[in-house]
Amino acid sequence: MPELPEVETIVRGLRQGSDEVPPLPGYHIRGVEVGWPRHIAEPSPKALKRRIKGQRIVGVRRRGKYLVFPLDKDTLMIHLKMSGDLSMAPASAERGPYDHTVFVLDEGWELRFSDARKFGKVFLVEDPQTVLQKLGPEPLDDSFTPEVLADCMRGRSRAIKPLLLEQSFVAGIGNIYADEALHRAGIHPLTPTDQLDSAEIQSLHRGIQEALQQGIERNGASIDWVYRGGDFQNHFRVYGREGEPCPVCKTPIKKIVVSQRGTHFCPRCQPEGESK
DNA sequence: CACGAGACCTGTTCGC
DNA sequence: TGCGAACAGGTCTCGT
Q1: Which residues of the protein are close to the nucleic strand B, CB under 7 angstroms?
Q2: Tens of pLDDT along A241-255?
Q3: Going by C-beta distance under 8 Å and a sequence separation of 6 or more, which residues neighbour residue A178?
Q4: A128-143 per-position pLDDT tens digit
Q5: Which residues of A are catalytic?
Q6: Residue A259 CA distance to nucleotide B3 C1' (Å)
Q7: In the structure, how far is the CA atom of residue A184 from the C1' atom of nucleotide C9, in angstroms?
Q8: How far is residue A110's CA from residue A96's CA, in Å, rounded to a whole number?
Q9: Please, which residues have CB within 8 angstroms of residue A195's CB and are 6 or more apart in sequence?
């Protein structure tokens, strides 16, 4: 699915518009077409349609992997999970086969939530905190310092990679950027978190920020059939590169399974059980 | 609290 | 060429 950089790319696109589509903020929502009721997490599809009608979209933000749309009265939030995508389109344009939820706007525009695997979720709530509360710090905020990361890690003994995937630990990191961050930091994915010294925590902090920032600069990654325009996939150092040379030391990249997720690393740059 | 397995879904790719 | 298995950017829930 889209991770933080992909969601950020979508948010910026909706906020700014393009040659083809206008910016989203300012439009009113005239109605919602729900083609897959389970897309709607909260409230019921019926209540969503009733409550959202007529509300104006005030802005477009991101928190972790959630897209957040403050409205007049409520807040609309969307999580794209594995295969979701959001786009502005003229109502006259043919719908795609996976456009399961469509927000009908003014002036003949639509906001379309396409989602082949149907894991995505739509929330309409009064208080966004009820959904976002559980998230850890935003890794690209100024307030996310190495000390904050160290605090989050304190008392945790589990392997670092599955911890990075936990959204209550740090928000927005997914499977790709976890592997990319750990490679930049020179840390083996199975390293017990409490074995990392402060220099390694610094490296990890830098690795996380660099991987995410570079992802955003490249407009995210486009892999499989979910193409969003980004090309960070051509700059992966380890993800999806099993057997290929590490860009730093040329050692073949290894792939293992950690917490049921494919995990890629360089055995030389990220030695196991290394203690510095 | 940590961890694994299973669930939720569909499309693509891999191996025989 | 064809077919089933494995796998995919996420997260929740349940059991040990």
Answers
A1: A 38, 82, 97-98, 116-119, 156-159, 162, 224-225, 259-260
A2: 999 999 999 999 999
A3: A161, A164, A165, A189
A4: 999 999 999 999 999 9
A5: 2-3, 65, 261
A6: 8
A7: 19
A8: 13
A9: A275
